[in-house]
Amino acid sequence: MRIKFFKDRVKDKAWLVSVDMGYGHQRAAYPLKVFAMDGKIINANNYPGIPEHDKDLWQMSRSFYEFISRFSSVPVIGEKTFEIYDKSFQGIPAFYPKRDLSEPSFQLKTIYRYIKDKGWGQDLIKKLSKKKIPLITTFFVPAFMAEYYKYRGDIYLVVTDTDISRAWVPIHPHRSRINYLAPSRRVMERLQLYGVRKHKIFLTGFPLPLENLGDNKLTTLRHDFGYRLPNLDPNRIYISKYEATIKRHLGVKNFRKKSDHKLTLMFAVGGAGAQRELGVEVVKSLKERITSRQINVTLVAGIHKEVNSYFKNELKAMGLGQNIGKNVNVLFSNSMDEYFRKFNLALRKTDILWTKPSELSFYCSLGVPIIIAPPIGQQEVFNQRWLEGIGAGITSDDPKYANEWLFDWIQSGWLAEAAMQGFLEASKFGTYNVERVIVKKPEEARIMETVLQY
């Protein structure tokens, strides 16, 4: 792994700031730890010495979001409540016709009122200002705080979805100091509609974990993908048709006729523990396939103890208790860092990722086809549209019959095609491109693929 690539160039390091609210913002920050001060992520809502009033403000927003996310699974009333919340606080306006969208939203005005009237974030920025080094954050509120309290160094904001609401851009975007690291062209164009100056936007792609990339030549990624394709296309329908293309992009040595692992499906719940019931429904459908050793399944509980217990209890109740730790695994950790490490390692031998279209949508670039669970929130609706647009994700059919349609998709080579589409069309070099921007080498801050899709 080319960690030295970063350490030789980012001499003064950078502050890396995220928020402990779900997985998305911290998952984006995790690969960037390699050039963070002391190799650590600072959580703006939960750092040592955080004032109680700041912590309370963060906790209020976090608790409400997690409640509303879980409540959204309640038929009718839960769905309607979330719909109202989503449109009011996370709404993304229609892109066309292109027009000036710089008018601040209600959510944005509320954030700035807390910063101005309650001193929200002043303590954090005062602490960080002791060193004049770049500040990289994966959530918009710390970026606003840094600008408002006149942080001395450069401010960089990593965008974590394929399209975004007005809340990502400050009250006065035309004179803002914030630099945006955009994961897609649509985000780059959306930011300009919101009023961000073009020279403050860098098209980088989403930062991906180095342990899954290997180096800037994608050595590990190409190796793993080569062993994934035979499982996704056992009849070699897609592989035989596009053999030359596959060899050209993976390298001849990574063109495999047989996998080194059993067909493996990973089901990942969201940071608020949403859709855990769906994961159990999927396993129930695949039970005979599991017991007959046709497929391995990993249920991702993340850092939620109650989800971990729920999954294990449900597996035992359906008669799969003896399979836990064998061909059915529950991925759980007590800490976020450990969870990401385990997740990234497990993903190397995962063939199919079933998840709602969260920030994990960008992981299709690792050559993992996405089965799309129902989106929660407008940003995930746009992520789903992006996945389907580039052909890297397929909306799930009825989970009760996954034992049938999932294997039809595999036998037809359809998932192999989705895997290749993600690998070819989505950016894989986000982590490296972020580094190029931070060390102010704009001539190198280019996307290394031929095309970075919307």
Write the layout of secondary structure elements.
Blueprint: H1 4-7, E1 15-18, H2 24-29, E2 42-43, H3 52-71, H4 77-89, H5 106-118, H6 122-128, E3 135-137, H7 140-148, E4 155-158, E5 179-182, H8 185-193, E6 201-203, H9 210-213, H10 219-232, H11 237-241, H12 243-250, E7 264-268, H13 276-291, E8 296-302, H14 305-317, E9 328-332, H15 336-347, E10 352-355, E11 370-372, H16 378-390, E12 393-395, H17 402-412, H18 414-425, H19 430-438
Parallel strand pairs: 1-2, 1-3, 3-4, 4-5, 5-6, 7-8, 7-10, 8-9, 10-11, 11-12
Helix pairs in contact: 5-7, 10-18, 13-14
Q: What this model shows, in words?
A:
The chain has 454 residues and is α/β, with parallel strands linked by helices. The protein folds into two domains: 4-208 and 430-438; 212-425, Rossmann fold, CATH 3.40.50. It has helices spanning 4-7, 24-29, 52-71, 77-89, 106-118, 122-128, 140-148, 185-193, 210-213, 219-232, 237-241, 243-250, 276-291, 305-317, 336-347, 378-390, 402-412, 414-425, 430-438; strands at 15-18, 42-43, 135-137, 155-158, 179-182, 201-203, 264-268, 296-302, 328-332, 352-355, 370-372, 393-395. The strands form two sheets. The protein has a six-stranded parallel beta sheet with strand order 2-1-3-4-5-6, with helices on both faces. It has a six-stranded parallel beta sheet with strand order 9-8-7-10-11-12, sandwiched between helices. α5 (106-118) packs across α7, α10 (219-232) runs antiparallel to α18 and α13 packs parallel to α14. The two termini are 29 Å apart. 49% of the residues are buried. Residues 445-454 have low confidence and may be disordered.
